[in-house]
Amino acid sequence: MISKRIELTLKECLIKVVDNRGKTPPISDAISPYPLIEVNAIVGAAKSPNFSAIKKFVTEGTYKNWFRAGHPLPGDIIFSTVGSIAEVALFEAGNGCIAQNLIALRPNLEIVLPDFLYYSLVHPKMQSYLKTLDISSVQPSIKVPHLLATKITIPSLAEQKFIGDFLSNFDSRINLLRETNDTLESIAQALFKSWFIDFDPVHAKARGLMPEGMDEATAELFPDSFEETELETVPKDWRLFVIYDLATFINGAAYKAFEPNMYRRGLPIIKIAELKAGVTENTAYSNIEMPKKYRIETGDILFSWSGNPDTSIDTFVWSFDPGWLNQHIFRVLPHPKK
Protein backbone atom coordinates (compact mmCIF):
# COMPACT_ATOMS: atom_id res chain seq x y z
CA MET A 1 0.00 0.00 0.00
CA ILE A 2 1.31 3.44 -0.98
CA SER A 3 1.91 5.88 1.90
CA LYS A 4 3.87 8.56 0.01
CA ARG A 5 4.39 9.76 -3.57
CA ILE A 6 6.37 7.35 -5.71
CA GLU A 7 6.99 6.94 -9.43
CA LEU A 8 5.94 3.64 -11.00
CA THR A 9 5.50 2.32 -14.50
CA LEU A 10 1.94 1.76 -15.63
CA LYS A 11 2.64 -1.97 -15.70
CA GLU A 12 3.55 -1.88 -12.00
CA CYS A 13 0.15 -0.32 -11.25
CA LEU A 14 -1.87 -3.10 -12.89
CA ILE A 15 -2.90 -6.65 -12.17
CA LYS A 16 -4.07 -7.44 -15.72
CA VAL A 17 -4.24 -6.15 -19.29
CA VAL A 18 -7.33 -7.35 -21.18
CA ASP A 19 -6.09 -7.68 -24.76
CA ASN A 20 -8.26 -9.44 -27.34
CA ARG A 21 -6.78 -7.70 -30.37
CA GLY A 22 -5.85 -9.55 -33.52
CA LYS A 23 -9.23 -10.89 -34.62
CA THR A 24 -12.74 -9.53 -34.94
CA PRO A 25 -15.43 -11.51 -33.11
CA PRO A 26 -18.52 -12.78 -34.93
CA ILE A 27 -21.21 -10.12 -34.74
CA SER A 28 -24.80 -10.85 -33.71
CA ASP A 29 -27.57 -10.15 -36.22
CA ALA A 30 -29.65 -8.65 -33.42
CA ILE A 31 -29.15 -6.34 -30.46
CA SER A 32 -28.09 -8.30 -27.40
CA PRO A 33 -27.05 -7.57 -23.79
CA TYR A 34 -23.43 -7.85 -24.92
CA PRO A 35 -22.26 -4.67 -26.74
CA LEU A 36 -18.97 -4.64 -28.62
CA ILE A 37 -17.18 -1.48 -27.50
CA GLU A 38 -15.18 0.13 -30.32
CA VAL A 39 -13.04 3.25 -30.48
CA ASN A 40 -15.94 5.46 -31.59
CA ALA A 41 -17.61 4.81 -28.21
CA ILE A 42 -14.75 6.40 -26.27
CA VAL A 43 -13.63 9.16 -28.66
CA GLY A 44 -14.76 12.43 -27.13
CA ALA A 45 -16.60 10.53 -24.40
CA ALA A 46 -17.25 12.25 -21.10
CA LYS A 47 -15.73 9.72 -18.73
CA SER A 48 -17.44 6.40 -19.42
CA PRO A 49 -17.96 4.78 -22.83
CA ASN A 50 -20.81 6.21 -24.86
CA PHE A 51 -22.99 3.13 -25.15
CA SER A 52 -25.49 4.97 -27.36
CA ALA A 53 -22.78 5.07 -30.07
CA ILE A 54 -22.40 1.28 -30.06
CA LYS A 55 -23.91 -0.43 -33.11
CA LYS A 56 -22.44 -3.93 -32.82
CA PHE A 57 -23.32 -6.74 -30.43
CA VAL A 58 -22.30 -10.36 -29.86
CA THR A 59 -24.30 -13.37 -28.77
CA GLU A 60 -24.11 -14.81 -25.26
CA GLY A 61 -22.12 -17.76 -26.60
CA THR A 62 -19.57 -15.50 -28.26
CA TYR A 63 -19.35 -13.34 -25.15
CA LYS A 64 -18.63 -16.34 -22.93
CA ASN A 65 -16.35 -18.35 -25.21
CA TRP A 66 -14.66 -16.25 -27.91
CA PHE A 67 -12.68 -13.58 -26.00
CA ARG A 68 -9.43 -15.20 -24.88
CA ALA A 69 -8.41 -12.46 -22.41
CA GLY A 70 -11.81 -11.85 -20.86
CA HIS A 71 -13.82 -8.66 -20.61
CA PRO A 72 -13.60 -5.24 -18.96
CA LEU A 73 -14.76 -5.15 -15.36
CA PRO A 74 -16.02 -2.13 -13.40
CA GLY A 75 -12.98 -0.02 -12.56
CA ASP A 76 -11.00 -1.01 -15.66
CA ILE A 77 -9.55 1.70 -17.91
CA ILE A 78 -10.30 1.25 -21.62
CA PHE A 79 -7.49 2.57 -23.84
CA SER A 80 -7.30 2.91 -27.64
CA THR A 81 -4.08 1.72 -29.30
CA VAL A 82 -4.83 2.22 -33.01
CA GLY A 83 -6.43 5.02 -35.03
CA SER A 84 -7.59 7.63 -32.53
CA ILE A 85 -4.82 6.69 -30.12
CA ALA A 86 -4.69 7.38 -26.38
CA GLU A 87 -8.45 7.80 -26.00
CA VAL A 88 -9.39 6.82 -22.45
CA ALA A 89 -12.61 5.79 -20.71
CA LEU A 90 -13.47 4.34 -17.32
CA PHE A 91 -15.61 1.21 -17.50
CA GLU A 92 -17.99 1.67 -14.59
CA ALA A 93 -20.80 -0.88 -14.91
CA GLY A 94 -22.65 -3.35 -17.11
CA ASN A 95 -21.61 -5.81 -19.80
CA GLY A 96 -19.22 -4.99 -22.58
CA CYS A 97 -16.53 -6.62 -24.67
CA ILE A 98 -13.51 -5.30 -26.55
CA ALA A 99 -11.47 -6.64 -29.44
CA GLN A 100 -9.70 -4.65 -32.16
CA ASN A 101 -7.83 -1.45 -31.28
CA LEU A 102 -8.76 -1.40 -27.59
CA ILE A 103 -7.32 -2.83 -24.40
CA ALA A 104 -8.49 -2.67 -20.80
CA LEU A 105 -6.15 -1.86 -17.91
CA ARG A 106 -7.09 -3.39 -14.55
CA PRO A 107 -5.63 -1.37 -11.64
CA ASN A 108 -4.06 -2.96 -8.59
CA LEU A 109 -6.30 -1.35 -5.97
CA GLU A 110 -3.56 -1.56 -3.35
CA ILE A 111 -1.50 0.81 -5.49
CA VAL A 112 -3.82 2.96 -7.58
CA LEU A 113 -7.53 3.78 -7.61
CA PRO A 114 -9.44 3.67 -10.92
CA ASP A 115 -10.56 7.31 -10.85
CA PHE A 116 -7.04 8.55 -10.14
CA LEU A 117 -5.57 6.40 -12.92
CA TYR A 118 -8.20 7.64 -15.36
CA TYR A 119 -7.51 11.31 -14.59
CA SER A 120 -3.76 10.68 -14.76
CA LEU A 121 -4.09 9.26 -18.28
CA VAL A 122 -6.30 12.08 -19.59
CA HIS A 123 -4.16 14.87 -18.15
CA PRO A 124 -2.97 17.14 -21.02
CA LYS A 125 0.73 16.55 -20.32
CA MET A 126 0.21 12.79 -20.19
CA GLN A 127 -1.85 12.90 -23.39
CA SER A 128 0.92 14.85 -25.10
CA TYR A 129 3.44 12.21 -24.04
CA LEU A 130 1.22 9.29 -25.06
CA LYS A 131 0.86 10.75 -28.56
CA THR A 132 4.67 10.56 -28.90
CA LEU A 133 4.45 6.78 -28.54
CA ASP A 134 2.92 6.58 -32.02
CA ILE A 135 5.04 4.16 -34.09
CA SER A 136 3.23 4.34 -37.41
CA SER A 137 3.47 6.86 -40.22
CA VAL A 138 0.30 5.54 -41.90
CA GLN A 139 -2.22 4.78 -39.15
CA PRO A 140 -1.44 5.97 -35.63
CA SER A 141 -0.55 3.07 -33.35
CA ILE A 142 0.85 2.51 -29.85
CA LYS A 143 2.58 -0.70 -28.83
CA VAL A 144 1.27 -2.04 -25.53
CA PRO A 145 4.78 -2.60 -24.03
CA HIS A 146 5.61 1.05 -24.73
CA LEU A 147 2.39 2.12 -23.03
CA LEU A 148 3.05 -0.08 -20.00
CA ALA A 149 6.51 1.45 -19.60
CA THR A 150 4.95 4.89 -19.09
CA LYS A 151 5.91 6.43 -15.73
CA ILE A 152 3.16 7.72 -13.41
CA THR A 153 3.53 9.58 -10.12
CA ILE A 154 1.43 7.79 -7.50
CA PRO A 155 0.44 9.55 -4.24
CA SER A 156 -1.08 7.87 -1.20
CA LEU A 157 -4.45 6.14 -1.60
CA ALA A 158 -6.06 8.80 0.60
CA GLU A 159 -4.76 11.56 -1.67
CA GLN A 160 -5.81 9.61 -4.76
CA LYS A 161 -9.33 9.28 -3.39
CA PHE A 162 -9.54 13.00 -2.65
CA ILE A 163 -8.35 13.89 -6.17
CA GLY A 164 -10.60 11.32 -7.83
CA ASP A 165 -13.71 12.35 -5.88
CA PHE A 166 -13.04 16.05 -6.48
CA LEU A 167 -12.70 15.66 -10.24
CA SER A 168 -15.55 13.14 -10.47
CA ASN A 169 -17.90 15.67 -8.89
CA PHE A 170 -17.03 18.12 -11.66
CA ASP A 171 -17.60 15.44 -14.30
CA SER A 172 -20.98 14.57 -12.79
CA ARG A 173 -22.03 18.20 -12.93
CA ILE A 174 -20.85 18.49 -16.54
CA ASN A 175 -22.79 15.34 -17.48
CA LEU A 176 -25.95 16.73 -15.85
CA LEU A 177 -25.62 19.94 -17.84
CA ARG A 178 -25.10 17.92 -21.03
CA GLU A 179 -28.27 15.94 -20.33
CA THR A 180 -30.18 19.18 -19.77
CA ASN A 181 -28.83 20.55 -23.05
CA ASP A 182 -29.85 17.34 -24.85
CA THR A 183 -33.39 17.70 -23.49
CA LEU A 184 -33.60 21.32 -24.62
CA GLU A 185 -32.19 20.37 -28.01
CA SER A 186 -34.87 17.68 -28.43
CA ILE A 187 -37.59 20.20 -27.58
CA ALA A 188 -36.14 22.71 -30.07
CA GLN A 189 -35.98 20.08 -32.84
CA ALA A 190 -39.57 19.00 -32.20
CA LEU A 191 -40.71 22.64 -32.33
CA PHE A 192 -38.79 23.28 -35.56
CA LYS A 193 -40.32 20.20 -37.19
CA SER A 194 -43.82 21.25 -36.13
CA TRP A 195 -43.47 24.82 -37.41
CA PHE A 196 -41.29 24.53 -40.52
CA ILE A 197 -41.61 20.96 -41.81
CA ASP A 198 -45.11 19.84 -40.84
CA PHE A 199 -46.42 23.46 -40.93
CA ASP A 200 -48.75 22.81 -37.98
CA PRO A 201 -49.41 26.53 -37.32
CA VAL A 202 -50.49 27.04 -40.95
CA HIS A 203 -52.77 23.99 -40.86
CA ALA A 204 -54.34 25.27 -37.63
CA LYS A 205 -54.97 28.77 -39.03
CA ALA A 206 -56.38 27.29 -42.24
CA ARG A 207 -59.00 25.57 -40.07
CA GLY A 208 -59.71 28.83 -38.26
CA LEU A 209 -57.94 27.72 -35.08
CA MET A 210 -55.27 29.36 -32.96
CA PRO A 211 -51.94 27.43 -33.29
CA GLU A 212 -51.38 25.34 -30.19
CA GLY A 213 -48.83 26.62 -27.67
CA MET A 214 -48.21 29.86 -29.57
CA ASP A 215 -48.87 33.47 -28.59
CA GLU A 216 -50.87 35.75 -30.87
CA ALA A 217 -47.87 37.82 -32.06
CA THR A 218 -45.98 34.68 -33.17
CA ALA A 219 -49.07 33.23 -34.82
CA GLU A 220 -49.37 36.40 -36.94
CA LEU A 221 -46.06 35.50 -38.61
CA PHE A 222 -47.59 32.40 -40.21
CA PRO A 223 -50.00 32.49 -43.19
CA ASP A 224 -53.42 30.81 -43.09
CA SER A 225 -53.22 28.96 -46.41
CA PHE A 226 -50.93 27.04 -48.79
CA GLU A 227 -49.93 27.38 -52.41
CA GLU A 228 -48.50 24.99 -54.99
CA THR A 229 -44.92 25.29 -56.29
CA GLU A 230 -43.10 23.26 -58.90
CA LEU A 231 -41.70 21.03 -56.16
CA GLU A 232 -44.26 20.87 -53.36
CA THR A 233 -47.05 22.59 -51.48
CA VAL A 234 -45.73 25.34 -49.18
CA PRO A 235 -47.25 28.04 -46.94
CA LYS A 236 -48.52 31.00 -48.96
CA ASP A 237 -45.84 33.56 -49.90
CA TRP A 238 -43.01 31.31 -48.66
CA ARG A 239 -40.20 30.67 -51.15
CA LEU A 240 -37.93 27.72 -51.90
CA PHE A 241 -34.15 28.23 -51.94
CA VAL A 242 -31.11 26.09 -52.60
CA ILE A 243 -29.35 26.01 -49.22
CA TYR A 244 -25.97 26.70 -50.85
CA ASP A 245 -27.37 30.07 -52.01
CA LEU A 246 -28.22 31.09 -48.44
CA ALA A 247 -24.76 30.87 -46.88
CA THR A 248 -21.02 30.61 -47.49
CA PHE A 249 -19.54 27.24 -46.52
CA ILE A 250 -15.89 27.42 -45.37
CA ASN A 251 -14.09 24.08 -45.03
CA GLY A 252 -11.50 23.81 -42.25
CA ALA A 253 -7.73 23.57 -42.67
CA ALA A 254 -5.71 20.35 -42.45
CA TYR A 255 -4.84 19.39 -38.88
CA LYS A 256 -1.07 19.44 -39.44
CA ALA A 257 -1.26 22.97 -40.86
CA PHE A 258 -2.00 24.24 -37.35
CA GLU A 259 1.24 22.76 -35.92
CA PRO A 260 -0.80 21.50 -32.92
CA ASN A 261 0.49 21.58 -29.36
CA MET A 262 -0.89 20.08 -26.13
CA TYR A 263 0.28 22.97 -23.93
CA ARG A 264 -2.79 25.18 -24.44
CA ARG A 265 -0.80 27.76 -26.37
CA GLY A 266 -3.01 29.78 -28.70
CA LEU A 267 -6.55 28.75 -29.67
CA PRO A 268 -8.10 25.26 -29.48
CA ILE A 269 -8.32 23.26 -32.72
CA ILE A 270 -11.96 22.29 -33.21
CA LYS A 271 -12.41 18.77 -34.58
CA ILE A 272 -15.56 16.64 -34.64
CA ALA A 273 -14.73 15.43 -31.11
CA GLU A 274 -14.85 19.03 -29.83
CA LEU A 275 -18.20 19.62 -31.54
CA LYS A 276 -19.63 16.81 -29.42
CA ALA A 277 -17.80 17.28 -26.11
CA GLY A 278 -16.51 20.85 -26.19
CA VAL A 279 -12.89 21.74 -25.46
CA THR A 280 -11.43 19.02 -23.21
CA GLU A 281 -8.09 17.94 -21.81
CA ASN A 282 -7.53 16.05 -25.09
CA THR A 283 -7.97 19.13 -27.28
CA ALA A 284 -4.88 20.31 -29.14
CA TYR A 285 -4.09 24.02 -29.56
CA SER A 286 -2.36 26.19 -32.15
CA ASN A 287 -0.59 29.53 -31.76
CA ILE A 288 0.38 30.05 -35.40
CA GLU A 289 -1.22 32.67 -37.62
CA MET A 290 -3.92 31.27 -39.91
CA PRO A 291 -6.26 33.02 -42.36
CA LYS A 292 -9.13 34.74 -40.56
CA LYS A 293 -11.72 32.54 -42.30
CA TYR A 294 -10.55 29.57 -40.20
CA ARG A 295 -11.22 31.35 -36.89
CA ILE A 296 -14.43 30.10 -35.27
CA GLU A 297 -16.32 32.73 -33.31
CA THR A 298 -18.84 32.17 -30.53
CA GLY A 299 -22.28 31.60 -32.09
CA ASP A 300 -20.98 30.32 -35.45
CA ILE A 301 -22.91 27.54 -37.20
CA LEU A 302 -20.70 24.49 -37.81
CA PHE A 303 -21.55 21.48 -39.98
CA SER A 304 -19.50 18.28 -39.74
CA TRP A 305 -19.74 16.60 -43.12
CA SER A 306 -17.40 13.59 -42.88
CA GLY A 307 -17.53 10.24 -41.11
CA ASN A 308 -20.25 7.90 -39.91
CA PRO A 309 -23.71 9.37 -40.67
CA ASP A 310 -25.00 7.98 -37.37
CA THR A 311 -22.31 9.53 -35.18
CA SER A 312 -20.36 12.23 -37.02
CA ILE A 313 -22.53 14.15 -39.52
CA ASP A 314 -24.45 16.88 -37.71
CA THR A 315 -25.02 20.61 -37.28
CA PHE A 316 -23.87 22.60 -34.24
CA VAL A 317 -23.91 26.14 -32.89
CA TRP A 318 -20.49 26.86 -31.36
CA SER A 319 -21.18 28.19 -27.84
CA PHE A 320 -17.60 28.28 -26.58
CA ASP A 321 -14.72 30.75 -26.97
CA PRO A 322 -13.02 31.21 -30.38
CA GLY A 323 -11.05 28.36 -31.90
CA TRP A 324 -9.52 27.12 -35.16
CA LEU A 325 -11.59 25.26 -37.77
CA ASN A 326 -10.27 21.77 -38.55
CA GLN A 327 -10.89 19.97 -41.84
CA HIS A 328 -14.12 17.95 -42.36
CA ILE A 329 -16.13 20.76 -40.76
CA PHE A 330 -17.86 23.62 -42.56
CA ARG A 331 -18.14 27.04 -40.95
CA VAL A 332 -21.52 28.24 -42.22
CA LEU A 333 -21.85 32.00 -42.66
CA PRO A 334 -25.46 32.98 -43.53
CA HIS A 335 -25.85 35.62 -46.23
CA PRO A 336 -27.53 38.87 -45.20
CA LYS A 337 -31.29 38.93 -45.74
CA LYS A 338 -32.18 40.43 -49.12
Strand neighbour order, sheet with most strands: 2-7-4-5
Secondary structure tally, helices: 8
Rg computed from alpha carbons, rounded to a whole number of angstroms: 25 Å
Give the rounded overall mean pLDDT.
Answer: 91
Order of helices and strands: EEEHEEEEHHHEHHHEEEEHEEEEEE
The count of β-strands is 18
Distance between the termini: 71 Å
| Estimated helix fraction | 25-40%
Sheet with the most strands, sense and barrel status: 4 strands, antiparallel
Q: What best-fitting shape do the alpha-carbon axes yield?
A: elongated
Explain briefly what this protein structure is:
The chain has 338 residues and is an alpha+beta fold.
Tell me about this structure:
- With 338 residues, the chain is an alpha+beta fold.
- Helix content is 25%, strand content 20%.
- The strands form six sheets. The chain has a four-stranded antiparallel β-sheet, with helices on one face. A four-stranded antiparallel β-sheet has the order 11-18-15-16, with no helix packed on it. A four-stranded mixed β-sheet has the order 13-12-17-14.
- Helix 2 (114-122) packs across helix 5.
- The model has no long low-confidence stretch (mean pLDDT 91).
Keywords for this entry:
four-stranded antiparallel sheet, 8 helices, 20% strand
Write the layout of secondary structure elements.
Layout: E1 6-9, E2 14-18, E3 36-37, H1 60-65, E4 77-80, E5 88-90, E6 97-98, E7 102-107, H2 114-122, H3 124-131, H4 144-148, E8 151-154, H5 157-196, H6 200-206, H7 216-219, E9 226-228, E10 233-235, E11 247-251, E12 267-270, H8 272-277, E13 285-286, E14 295-296, E15 301-304, E16 314-317, E17 323-325, E18 329-334
Parallel strand pairs: 3-6, 12-17
Antiparallel strand pairs: 1-8, 2-7, 4-5, 4-7, 9-10, 11-18, 12-13, 14-17, 15-16, 15-18
